[in-house]
Input
Amino acid sequence: MSETVRILLVEDNPGDARLLRETLREAHSLSFDLVHASRLSEALELVATEAPEVVLLDLSLPDAHGMETVGRMLDAAPEVPIIVLTGLADERVAVQAVQSGAQDYLVKGTVEGGTLARAIRYAIERKRLEGERARLLRNEQEARAAAEAAVMARDEVLRIVAHDIGNSLSAVKIHARVLERTLPADEVDARSRIESIRHLTQQMDRLRQDLLDVAAIEAGRLSFEPAELDVGEVVDDVLAGVAGMAGEKEMEVSASIGADLTAAWADRERIHQVLSNLVGNAIKFTPQGGRVLVTAVAEDGEIRVSVADTGPGIPPEHLPHVFDRFWQARSTRRAGAGLGLAIARGIVEAHGGEIGVESEPGRGTTFHFTLPLA
Output
C-alpha cells in the first residue's frame, strides 16, 4: 500500500459523498487521494484507465442496483478491493456482496473516521493476501500438473523399456535352453555357466517386474483380482519355496495357522508376492541356525499375518524408512534394489490392509500385515 491511498468513491448522493470525504479527513493516520464517480459506468471507465487501491461502492446507483453493482465492478477490477456502502435497509444485500467477493461493508452515516480508515487498510491487506493465496494455488496446480505429466511420461518410458527388456530376457532364456540341450553331458563347466545365465535372467526379470509394480502403485493402477483366499495355503506354498534357502543356512522355518482362520478377500498371487518378500528377507538377514516363524490369525474382524525372525534386528532410526522406495540400511546396501518392502506396502494397502514392523536390535524383527475377511 502506498503512503497516499488512491480511493474511488462511487456514490450518487452528493450529501453522502461529501460526508464520506469529511469522515476520511477525520482519520489523520490515513493520507488519501479520492476520486468521486456518481454512476457505475463512470466508475468502470476510471478503473479501466488507472486502477485505484480501493473502491467505496454504493449499492444503489442510477445505472445499477444491488448485487449487479458489485458483480460488474468485480468483473471490471477483480484485483481491486471493494468496500460496499449501504443503508440500514440493505444490510442483507451487503452481506451477500461480501460473500460474492467484496472485502467489507459499511453502513452509511454510522462510520467514524478511524473505523473507515481501518476498514480501508484491512480491505487492501485482505485483497493482497487473497491474491497471494491465488498465486500460490496457481503455482501449486501448475507444479502438480507438471509432476503428473512427468510421471505419465516416465511410466510410458518404463513400460516401453520393460517390454523391450522382457523380450530380450526371453531370447536369452531360449538361447540358454537350446545350448543346454545341445551340450554334451560331460560339459560340466559350460552347464554351470548356463545355469548362472538362467539365474541372472531371473533376477533381472524380477527387477523389471518390481519397477513396473512400483510405477503402478504410485499411479494407483496396481492390478489385482481379489477372491476368497485360504491364507494358510499361501503360507505353505511360500515356505515350500524357501525350503532350499533355509536348508543351506540350517534354519528352522515354520508356520502357526490359527484353527479358526477363515478366508481372506485378496489376490492370491499378490499376497504370495508379499509373503515371499517378507519370508525371504527374514531368511536372508537371519544368521546361520536362526529361526523364522510365520503366523496367521483372525483378529479384530480381519486376518493378521506376521513374519518373525531371530536376526540382528533393525536400529530404531531405520524403522521409519524400511518401506521407502530404494532405501536400504547401509550394511545391506548391495542386497538388492530396495523395492520389495515398498511393493509389499503398496499391495497390502491396495487390499485395504495395513503393514508394519517391530524390531529390537539383537532380538529379531517382526513384520506384520492385515487383510480383510472374505
